[in-house]
Every structure is written in C-alpha cells, then in structure tokens.
Amino acid sequence: MKLRKLFIPATACVALCAIAAPVKRNVVDEVAWIVGDEPIFRSEIEEMYTQMRSEGQNIVGDPYCVIPERLAVEKLYLHQAKLDTVEASEGQVQSEVENRMQFFVQNLGSKEKVEEYFRKPYAQLRESLAEMMRNNYIVSSVQNNLTADVKATPNDVRKYYASLPEDSIPYVPMQVEAQIVSINPVVPAQEIEDVKARLRDYADRVNRGESKFSTLAIAYSEDFNSAMQGGEIGYTGRSGLVPEFANVAFNLNDPNKVSRIVETEFGYHIIQLIDKRGDQVNVRHILLTPKVSQKDLSEATVRLDSLRKEIVAGKYSFEDAARYVSQDKETKNNKGIMMNEQTRSTRFEMQDLPPEVARRIELMQPGDVSEAFIMKDAKRNKDIVAMVKLTTRIPGHKANLADDFNMIKEMYENKQKSDILHDWVEQKIKDTYVNIAEDWRNCEFQYKGWIK
Prior knowledge:
Order of helices and strands: EEHHHHHHEEHHHEHEEEHHEHEEEHE
Mean pLDDT: 88
Strand content: 15-25%
Shape: flat
Radius of gyration: 27 Å
C-alpha cells in the first residue's frame, strides 16, 4: 500500500546522470561547447556518460556527440523559459524530490548507502536533484506551450494511418475489457478495537519517552513503503493526502506528541509531526489495517456466488449488480467497468490486470461471469471478494483504425509535436551563439546548424 493519495507513489528515477558525483580529473577542465553564454564542460559530459552506463541506459550513437547535444538543447529551452518567465512550482519540485529521495533510500537500504552510491552528501544530493527536477519541469512547460495547439481531426488520423509504411504499423498485444463487482466483508468490531488498542499503546510509549516513533513504525507499520523510512512520508501538500489524514497532519504543532487515532479508507493511523514548510507538512505515521476473518470472507464468497447464479439465469444484469451491490467506489457508478489507470482507457493487457482477475479472465469467453473469488485490494492492503465479467477480448493484431483509433490518434499527435519541437530547436540554434571546440565537432548531430 502506498499512502499518497494516500501519498503519491514514488516514481522510478531513471534520469540519475545529472546528479551523480563528478568524475575525478587530473587535468584542468575543458570547455567543450558554448551555447549563448553558457559553457558545457567536459566534466559534465563525462559524469553524465558514467552514470548512464551504470544505469544501463542505451545511447544511440557516439556518447561524446549525443550527450553534449542533449545538454545544449536543454540550455536552449531554459533560455526560452527565461524570456517567457516560465517557472517551476517550488512546492511540486520539493514534493517530487522527497519522493525520489525516499525511492533511493528504499531501494539502496539507507541514507548512508545512498551517499555511498552517488558519492555525495545527502543534502548535496537533494540540492542537485532539486535543480534537475526544476529544469525538467521548466523544459516540459516550454515544450507544452509550443505544442499546445496540436489537435487531430478524424480526417488527420485517417490520412496519417494511410501514410504509414506497413512495417511501421505497431503490433497491439491481446487486450481485454472487463467489469467487476466487489464487496468488502465487515471487519469484526473486536478486531478494530484490538488495532486501536495497539495504536494507543504505541502512542503512549512515544509520549512517555520509552520508544521512538520511527522505531515503532519500522517494526509495526503496515504502510511498508514509509515504514522503511521510520514512517516518514516526506513533504506533502494537503491535496496529496486523503482528507481525514490531512486534517489531522496539518493541525499538529508539537513534534514530541503523537496524534489521536485517525481512520481512513486504508485503516487506522497515528501521526507525529516532523516539520512544516510553507503549505507542506512532513510527518511520520504508523498504519494498522484490521483484518477480515476467513469466516467473513467465506460468507461473502457464498453471497456473490448466489448473485452470480441469478445473473447467469437472467434475473439481474451485471450492471445492476454493480450499481446496487458492489462496494468498489471506482466502478460502482460506472456499470462496473474497470479502468486502466496507466492508459486511462477500458482496455487492459493481461499483465496490467490485478493477478487474481487475470487468472480468471484468461480462461473466460466474452460474456462469461466468473465465480466469486478472494483478491487483494492493493491500494488499501486488504482482502475483498469479487466476481468479474469478460466484456471483450481483442486478439493481438496490427493496429487499425476500427479497433485502435485513439492509439493512432495519439501517435499522430506525438509526431506533430515532435516535428514542431524539432523545427523550433533548429530555428533557435540559428538565433543563438554556439561555439563547439574543434575536438568535439566531428559528429552526426540530431539537429542541424550547430556548426556555423
């Protein structure tokens, strides 16, 4: 379970090259390029190359041509941002920095190991990462402004598809569309009281100075992502937290005291303030989730199986079952239709489905309704009971307008945006002073006009 929304999950960081420690040099640093009045040093290129290799990133072409050109293009966008007064949201930058730093600690094991890996003090790494994220946001904003007017009509999409060479038409793996009905068995009142008693005990131990909150979080919290950081979630705005949690977290004032017990859709929490910074707060928390008994899961399974028989017999539609029986907030009022959060569509490749759902659907035909089964609600870290209906199975195929219009439309719009940005960069190169040192000129660059 991830606590962001209840906290926003930390995203994988692949652009690490900009924050690695500088490589050791025995000679005076060399200016390889000058773009406007901004130099690009050999050391910058070397450290980026070193880190890209350590991360296994593929570099198409000579890295001593590709990397400085990337740095130069970024400088063009950043210069345009100054002209247009485009700035990054500092709150958003710091929130993302905290996510990334937590990701590093989680994957490398500790802050000390993070420092060892990047060969930088933790605070300096944070500053470098903030600068990188700030530049990324600014460049993205400039690019979005330049391509904001790109909109595809159906006729544009048809012409684009017709112009694609046969070997450029992408292959679309098998996809499915499905509906789901799920119920949350009632948690026994005694189980809830036991969870609250444990949390009260933890809070009392911290308030009496007998235990550290972070130690208890590591040992007992069921938000396993933050538990590894002693329960710390990182600086987060109010909108990044579920309301019940935010209301308590933002009203804490004493870092030495523990909050009352807070109930959210994820379970029960106690919270300790670490720091407040502007409109963001950093807290620790311990989450405990009451468990459903096997007896209640079995009874819920029997209930859904009975409902399934009535659906198969035609007494009720699956859509009615979703509307009146399902307790899944995300699909209840949408006829039970499952939405793919990655693509924002109703289509799923099999690996994108919850594993328990995929196992049932693999053996079903369109129109089939599965028997009830127990599955893990990954967002809320609890067991629920569900049944699914396979609505559509789309075999693997080459993309076509009838089945894949939205995907082809996106391809067309991405191509238009790419062409606009490519032309903009080449025009910007013409209008900008660029000087490339003699030893760095023998390259096949992506953009024309660097050497004048």
